[in-house]
């Protein structure tokens, strides 16, 4: 088993394509074709986490936050970032990061927050737009089913709760190969006219390479004609935050007590909301002030997130804003990754880091 086998499964859970542009996800240290010994899952990859990996003979650390976020100009051990990176490299330990790729995934960070709070009927709070792509290709009628099946197998035509979706219409195509061509249908230097079908399917962009490969391998033409475009539509299964409902409405005080207990936080900072009861709840792990307006527009009674500033709370009159702390809002991510990897790699040691990584202390 190679480290790359683990990475392949992590990119099914949280494809890197959907990480934010500012982020630094993926393999930060190590060689992906190294034999896997064990996996240590953590929220942050600090030096004490690397020590724990060494102690437990784990040569892959799967971290939510990237220890390397911006460029390093040298590797002198002068701060916590460089110390962790140097120790990982010295001990041949690979570090893989999911961060905002897992934030954007359905079932990711915010969905796990909702699960812990007992919030159900969840949907993505801010679904991404311009994510869905469409491919159109032109195929001789007798070869349509072969190409269609190949594209389905590569992931085309699958969105949300549906799969094997396509549309086709018939028409007449013409082509003429030059003297260097080698047509599988017709003859070079002679125009060929035949009945074709235009086949179109939608797909998600992280599958584009595989889908094009499937098209080229299954299509009968020497030169395959196709078009790829990006749709304006939003896609509900990729985006930031979630919104759902509690099984029954709670009074504000009871909701705050529940929130404090679930997130095991020293304090919940909340707004002076006019709400009396909380039923519809939005959640977003990490710094979520940018999503306050989305939570309001979605009709949420409360919004659980972190890193709210003083002036953010002025927006909390018609919604109960709850800041539980950055670490606290994302703490369950470690459990999410641990459970996922244990299921996929039951024959390998997949450990949940015990080292403390929360830099905030409550007095």
SSE layout and pairings?
Layout: H1 3-13, E1 26-29, E2 38-42, H2 47-55, E3 60-63, H3 80-90, E4 94-97, H4 100-104, H5 109-117, E5 120-129, E6 133-140, H6 144-153, E7 167-175, E8 192-203, H7 208-218, E9 226-230, E10 234-251, H8 252-262, E11 269-270, E12 277-287, H9 292-297, E13 302-306, E14 320-323, H10 326-330, H11 332-344, E15 349-352
Parallel strand pairs: 2-3, 2-15, 3-4, 12-13, 13-14
Antiparallel strand pairs: 1-4, 5-10, 6-8, 6-9, 7-8, 10-12, 11-14
Describe the protein in words:
With 363 residues, the chain is of the alpha/beta class. The chain is 28% helix and 29% strand. The chain has helices spanning 3-13, 47-55, 80-90, 100-104, 109-117, 144-153, 208-218, 252-262, 292-297, 326-330, 332-344; strands spanning 26-29, 38-42, 60-63, 94-97, 120-129, 133-140, 167-175, 192-203, 226-230, 234-251, 269-270, 277-287, 302-306, 320-323, 349-352. Strands 5-10-12-13-14-11 form a six-stranded mixed sheet. Strands 1-4-3-2-15 form a five-stranded mixed sheet, with helices on both faces. A four-stranded antiparallel sheet has the order 7-8-6-9, covered by helices on one side. Helix 6 (144-153) packs antiparallel against helix 7. The chain starts with a helix and ends in an 11-residue tail after the last strand. The model has no long low-confidence stretch (mean pLDDT 96).
């Amino acid at each position: 088993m190679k480290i790359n086998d683990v990475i392949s499964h992590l990119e099914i859970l949280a494809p890197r394509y959907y990480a934010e542009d500012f982020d630094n996800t993926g393999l930060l240290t190590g060689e992906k074709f190294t034999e896997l010994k064990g996996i240590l899952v953590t929220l942050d990859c600090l030096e004490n986490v690397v020590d724990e990996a060494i102690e437990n003979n784990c040569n892959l650390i799967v971290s939510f936050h990237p220890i390397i976020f911006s460029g390093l100009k040298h590797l002198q051990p002068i701060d916590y970032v460089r110390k962790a990176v140097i120790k990982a490299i010295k001990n041949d330990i690979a570090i893989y990061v999911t961060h905002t790729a897992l934030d954007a995934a359905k079932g990711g960070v915010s969905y796990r927050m909702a699960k812990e709070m007992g919030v159900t009927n969840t949907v993505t709070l801010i679904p991404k737009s311009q994510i869905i792509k469409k491919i159109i290709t032109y195929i001789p009628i007798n070869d349509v089913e072969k190409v269609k099946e190949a594209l389905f197998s590569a992931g085309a035509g699958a969105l949300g709760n549906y799969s094997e979706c396509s549309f086709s219409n018939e028409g007449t195509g013409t082509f003429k190969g030059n003297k260097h061509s080698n047509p599988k249908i017709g003859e070079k230097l002679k125009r060929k006219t035949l009945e074709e079908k235009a086949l179109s399917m939608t797909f998600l962009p992280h599958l584009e390479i595989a889908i094009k490969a499937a098209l080229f391998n299954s299509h009968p033409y020497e030169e395959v004609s196709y078009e790829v475009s990006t749709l304006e539509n939003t896609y509900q299964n990729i985006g930031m935050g979630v919104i759902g409902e509690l099984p029954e409405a709670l009074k504000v005080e009871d909701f705050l007590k529940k929130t404090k207990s679930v997130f095991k936080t020293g304090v919940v900072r909340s707004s002076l909301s006019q709400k009396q009861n909380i039923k519809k709840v939005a959640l977003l792990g990490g710094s979520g002030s940018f999503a306050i307006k989305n939570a309001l527009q979605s009709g949420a009674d409360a919004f659980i997130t972190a890193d709210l500033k003083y002036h953010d709370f002025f927006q909390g009159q018609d919604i109960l804003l709850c800041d539980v702390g950055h670490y606290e809002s994302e703490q369950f991510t470690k459990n999410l990754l641990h459970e996922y990897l244990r299921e996929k790699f039951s024959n390998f040691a997949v450990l949940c880091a015990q080292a403390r990584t929360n830099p905030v202390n409550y007095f």
